[in-house]
Amino acid sequence: MSHADRPAAAVLAEAAAAAGYAPSVHNTQPWRWRVTDEALDLYAVRDRQLHVADPEGRLLTISCGTALDHAEVALSAEGWSTAVRKLPDAADRNHLAHITLADRTGVTPEAMRLFQAVRVRHTDRRPVSGTPASEEAIGVIERAVRAKGLHLHLLTRDQTLDLAAAASHADKVETNDEDQRTELAYWIGGDRADGAGVPDAVIPSHAPETTVPGRDFVRAGTLTVGPGHDKAATYAVLYGPGDEPADWLSAGQALSAGWLVATELGVSVLPFSSVIELPGTRQTLRRVISDVGYPYLVLRLGVADPDAAGPPHTPRLPVAQTIEVVTA
Ligand SMILES: Cc1cc2nc3c(=O)[nH]c(=O)nc-3n(C[C@H](O)[C@H](O)[C@H](O)COP(=O)(O)O)c2cc1C
Fold this sequence. Notes:
Blueprint: H1 8-19, E1 31-35, E2 39-44, H2 58-77, E3 80-86, E4 95-104, H3 109-120, H4 135-146, E5 151-154, H5 157-175, H6 178-187, E6 234-240, H7 245-264, E7 268-272, H8 274-277, H9 279-288, E8 294-302, H10 319-322, E9 323-325
Parallel strand pairs: 1-9
Antiparallel strand pairs: 1-2, 2-4, 3-4, 5-6, 6-8, 7-8
The structure holds flavin mononucleotide (FMN).
């Protein structure tokens, strides 16, 4: 059988497996895939929603959007263009996307490079190095986000100070809330042998000296952080035109698209979501971007310290828990 003649279900199942490497809030991986002979369907899994920090499911849906884009990247690397219907079933809000194979497009080197970035991409919570990401690289990341219909607003120095105040406020509010702490403890720390959540190995051993504080996980991890700062970091707000589930799904696609090209270009991306979780700080961010749209996530862009070992990869759930194959 030639490469092009492989059964659609096999191609779709592989794409769903590749989507498992997508980033998600607290590594909750709140998605389930259903593979049939004709299509790939993406569902939100509410059991893995952060019901305290994310009651509306904004971060859950953004996370599922990253998985959706990863699946599309995998299909494109197999030489397929896809047709994607978002939120195809008005009666089932958990049914987030229906993907079918459209045309054979041939495999481009660009598609292969993006697909390779899927296995390399990871979250690095150490401070960035003193070398800023180049304007050119940031321009490429912005264009990848724009191609998904969204935008990055790059923060000025003053706006970064506003972000720092908002991030520190959000962390204080969340860590003082017992329900938030209980939810955090459920997802964060330990070795995460079951494949979900954030292990100690990727959490800094002490809070780095940065202007904008990274998320307070309320426990020290084992990731060594050097003396670096975030002076050379660029902070950006990912934003778009609406604040509904379809917008959040697009935000996830844009986050994935931007993060994968950033990975190719050696730019480290660190999401900040506590400022999005609290309505008050989310409103502050709206003002920071002059009400031009709705903020979905803040991103720190920079270059990782090339001399020190980076964090290991965060584990993933076994595919049997996230993919169901139903073929004739
Ligand atoms: C919507 C979203 C929000 C996130 N928020 C944060 C955050 O506030 N702080 C943080 O350190 N990492 C954050 N992350 C990164 C995740 O923790 C990370 O993607 C996950 O643990 C999987 O690890 P990996 O990216 O290294 O594969 C976020 C990721 C997503 C997709």
